[in-house]
Specification:
With 501 residues, the protein is mostly helical. The chain has two domains: 148 residues; 332 residues, Neurolysin, domain 3, CATH 1.10.1370.30. Helices cover 63% and strands 3% of the residues. It is built from 20 helices and three strands. The chain has a three-stranded mixed sheet, sandwiched between helices. A hairpin with a 5-residue loop joins β2 and β3. α1 crosses α3. The longest helix is centred in the N-terminal third of the chain and has 31 residues. The structure holds zinc ion (ZN). Zinc ion binds next to α10 and α11.
Length: 501
């Protein structure tokens, strides 16, 4: 009986996975090459397919199979494929069935309308235009949190959607400690009297050359172009629509090297994780990513720990100089300093490694206040300005560059921001451990050898899929729970010599 129920559950999940991957494909198309007038019909396609998938995931037969499998003692333990498949499909089923279809549809509709309203409000630099939409979204997500239930914090069920099993209290503790330690580092950098020669990066970089250069770096670190693609979009992302079909995207600025190059490394890092997941478990939890925080740890590691290291550029800088005449007379020391420039800025997506997490902490604190009902939404722009003054010492001159800068809230994504900071911390913790175990990654990078790190990540993280939660995985891989210390050690080790602090 048990094996029959398991077989049916898996077959059903695999079939649902095919519809989900088709959804990913039409969404990728929408964000890359779809004609502009095709939007409204595409929205109908996405809504219909989403509703159909939700119905499949909440079908009564799924509940019946899960019931039959409730007390099974799986042979290969609680983190083996079978137990993990049942546990995670149950988690998904229980979450989905708690949400009435009307709420799911209301949220989907609000997200589409929210993004349209956000684009307008941002263009007009007018928060009041966006306020009614935001009020709708917050009240729907509050309704969702109530339907899902929680013990201590209404933020928990929202965070749980992106970081399964994680608790607000734990994240808040880690990020508060991080904030305390970051402040003196950022202040010392500001007082150092040294500034990076960033003009080097703001020169002419022909787009076709940038594309070739980025593509070759992505290939070199291990993104497989036989099983993936690189395309152009406005807001870069990575999407997977089959076990051998991972799409990454980037955007080009012909007068600035960073967005496309480091963006490509970042998305290639996401892609290497997706390509490292187990093919035989595609559509099932053991072949799925662990959490968004773990996903982001993979992208940030290749972008920063690897891509902004001196060793990486010892290998790549001669090729960069050959390709870009604007770098012909530059030297490696200046270039390395320029790509590691630290200074407080207003825009999250342009922030450096040291200040980036402060942008996230601002949003995390505001989201908790909003969801807890402690902050009226009309007061949000003012609260944003105060938090930026407090955390970064600067204040946005406009809401367009302040509270309206990110798409997330307009798309209903509340509870998502902390996964970016978690990703940075997980990346540093994993990387420190890999460096210790693999002995001298710098020497390998300087030779252009990225395979040992990639294979280490594949074995320790990618091939584990969702058999462990993020919190379990970090203990399993590094022997320690998540901590901000490896990240601070990493920053100090890099920025200390650059800024003489
Ligand atoms: Zn990312």
């Amino acid at each position: 009986m048990t094996s029959e129920a398991f077989g049916k559950l898996v077959a059903h999940a695999r079939e649902t996975g095919k519809f989900s991957s088709i959804l990913a494909l039409i969404e990728w198309d929408e964000r890359t090459i779809m004609p502009s007038q095709a939007g409204s019909y595409r929205a109908e396609q996405v809504t219909s397919l989403s509703g159909f998938i939700h119905a499949r995931r909440t079908a009564a037969e799924v509940g019946a199979w899960l019931d039959e499998l409730r007390d099974v003692d799986w042979e290969n333990g609680p983190h083996g494929d079978e137990a993990s498949t049942v546990r995670e499909l149950r988690r998904d089923y229980e979450r989905q069935t708690k949400l009435p279809r009307s709420l799911v549809e209301a949220l989907a509709g609000a997200a589409v309308r929210g993004q349209q309203a956000w684009v307008e409000a941002r263009r007009n630099d007018d928060f009041s235009e966006f306020l009614p939409t935001l009020e709708t979204i917050v009240s729907l997500r509050r309704e969702e949190a109530e339907a899902l239930g929680y013990e201590s914090s209404i933020y928990d069920p929202l965070l749980d959607a992106y970081e399964p099993g994680e608790r607000t209290e734990v994240v808040a503790g880690v990020l508060a400690a991080l904030k305390t330690d970051l402040a003196p580092l950022v202040a010392a950098i500001a007082d150092s009297g040294r500034t990076a020669p960033v003009d080097l990066l703001h020169q002419s970089f022909p787009i076709d050359e940038q594309e070739e250069f980025g593509r070759s770096a992505a290939r070199r670190i291990g993104f497989d172009f036989e099983r993936g693609r690189l395309d152009v979009t406005h807001h870069p992302f990575c999407a997977t629509m089959g076990p051998s079909d991972c799409r990454i995207t980037t955007r080009y600025d012909k007068m600035f090297l960073n967005p496309a190059f480091f963006g490509t490394l970042h998305e290639a890092g996401h892609g290497i994780y997706e390509q490292g997941l187990r093919d035989d478990q595609f559509e099932l939890p053991p072949g799925s990513y662990a959490s968004l925080g773990i996903h982001e740890s993979q992208s940030r590691m290749w972008e920063n720990q690897v891509g902004r290291s001196r060793a990486f550029w010892e290998h790549l800088f001669p090729a960069a100089q050959q390709r870009f005449s604007s770098l012909a007379n530059a030297n490696l020391d200046d270039f390395y300093f320029a790509i590691n420039d630290v200074r407080p800025s207003l825009i999250r997506v342009e922030a450096d490694e040291a200040t980036y997490n402060l942008h996230i902490i601002v949003r995390f604190e505001l989201e908790q206040a909003i969801m807890g009902g402690d902050l009226p939404l009309a007061d949000l722009p003012q609260a944003w300005r105060e938090k930026y003054r407090d955390a970064l010492g600067i204040e946005p001159p406009s809401d367009a560059d302040g509270v309206l800068q990110d798409v997330h809230w307009s798309a209903g994504l509340i509870g998502y921001f902390p996964t970016y900071a978690l990703g940075n911390l997980y990346a540093a913790q994993f990387f420190a451990h890999a460096d210790e175990q693999l002995g001298g990654l710098d020497e390998q990078f300087a030779r252009g050898d990225f395979e040992p790190l990639r294979e280490w990540l594949r074995e320790k993280i990618h091939r584990r899929g969702r058999c462990l939660t993020a919190a379990e995985l970090v203990v399993d891989v590094t022997g320690e729970p998540l901590s901000h210390h490896p990240f601070m050690t990493y920053l100090q080790g890099k920025l200390g010599p650059l800024y003489g602090i």
